[in-house]
Amino acid sequence: DTAALSRGDAAEEGDTEPATPGEAFLVGVGRHFTGMAVGHGLLLLGALLVVGGTVRGLSTRYPLPTESLLTALRERLKANQLPLPEQLEVMLPWAWAMVAMALHRARRGSSGAGDRGVRWMLAMQNDDGGWAAFDRTEHRQWMEYVPFADHNAMQDPSCPDITGRVLECLSWHGLRCGDAAVDRAIRYIQSHQLPQGCFFGRWGVNYIYGTWQAVIGPIRCGEPREAEWIRRAGAWMKSVQKPDGSFGESADTYEDPSLMGTGPSTASQTAWGAMVLQEIYGSDDPDLARAIAWLARTQLTPEQAADPAANPDGDPAGSWCETEFTGTGFPKVFYLRYHLYRLYFPLMALGRYARAHGAA
After folding, report:
1. Exposure on the CB side of residue 101, measured as CA atoms within 13 A
2. H helix or E strand, kind and range, residue 267
3. Element spanning 5, H or E
4. Is 112 exposed, middle or buried (0-12, 13-18, 19+ CB in 10 A)?
């Protein structure tokens, strides 16, 4: 029912109605997709919806999306009760990091399925200390020069963005600096910091995405915010923030790194930048406030949502207009426009900011 999805209705009798257009849209999407979450892609989508929703407290007010999603996640994990070699073939670290984090946060504590996912992810750590998106492997650069290499990506080596995402998940499950796996992962991330202070984004555009993923996980695990390498990352992020408070970066930066941090402003990239600023500098940082203000100012009003020129995708009020490609398939080959990036990442950033300032 696309009409119900757009309105965010179909509430169970007795449910509290969403308080804002953005919440209504998120809850509607959650109800629509959680019953379908049977593949890796939909599991990741559902997990991101739960993570975004728990930041804003939606899981306590709208039980249906969270409960049906958790049922789907648990059933999928149970279906993969295989010996470790087979698990390594059928499960993906990039997805299960978000799934295990979602299970923990929605349940406000440990869950058997989430704990099994964490044990599996620890087994997937590469020898260099990092994690890759799909495989446990060793980086062999020479393979990328084979003439028939698929999209210049014949292998799946560790990358800082996935490694940082896994660390954020591990932090929710109690792992901290001092744990061997965490320390090795942080050393891996540090070794891939660029001279400018930022990090390459393998799976999202580009250095804004890579820096967001690379620094938050280590901080959540206990890496000091005052660490020199963390401060350099924060300084770079501030250096590319626009006068209006937003962030934007084009996929052209993969072809020309001198363009790093520049491009049309987007809601998803502004959210990534805002979350970095809050994690490093705290919730009272004035540059963070500028990013949050931009997100609040550019959220679609009912009038804008009804205007095809302002809203070419036809999103309901409460979303954001984002026509740029901020997801990366293969650098220099193809990029992706995930239609919910413009919703759940701003929701995460706004929720973290609101929670830090005592908002309900």
Report:
1. 29
2. helix 267-281
3. helix 2-7
4. exposed
- DSSP state at residue 179: B
* Residues forming beta bridges with residue 177, ordered by sequence position: 179
The whole-angstrom separation of Cα 247 and Cα 268 is 9
Q: How many CB atoms lie within 10 A of CB 43?
A: 22
DSSP string, 51-82: HHHHHTTHHHH-HHHHHHHHHHHHHHHHHT--
Q: How many CB atoms lie within 10 A of CB 124?
A: 21
Q: What angle do CA 296, 350, 243 make, to 5 degrees?
A: 50
For 222, residues 6+ apart whose C-beta sits below 8 A from its C-beta are: 176, 177, 178
Question: pLDDT digit string (tens) for 236-292?
Answer: 999 999 999 999 999 999 999 999 999 999 999 999 999 999 999 999 999 999 999
Tokens of 304: 């804008």
Return the H-helix or E-strand segment holding 329: strand 327-330
Q: Indicate the pLDDT class of residue 117, thresholds 50, 70 and 90.
A: confident
> Both tokens of residue 228?
């020199």
Q: Evaluate if residue 4 carries a pLDDT over 60.
A: no
The 10 Å Cβ neighbour count of residue 35 is 14
Angle between helices 341-356 and 21-33 (to 10 degrees): 120
Q: Is residue 336 helix, strand or coil?
A: strand
Q: Helix axis angle, 160-172 relative to 207-220, nearest 10°? A: 30
Q: What is the mean pLDDT of residues 132-155?
A: 77
Is the confidence at residue 58, as pLDDT, over 60? Answer: no
For residue 130, name the pLDDT band (cuts at 50, 70, 90).
very high
Is pLDDT of 77 > 80?
Answer: no
Full-model pTM: 0.77
Query: Do 4 and 28 touch, CB atoms closer than 8 A?
Result: yes
Q: What would the two tokens of residue 254 be?
A: 């993969």
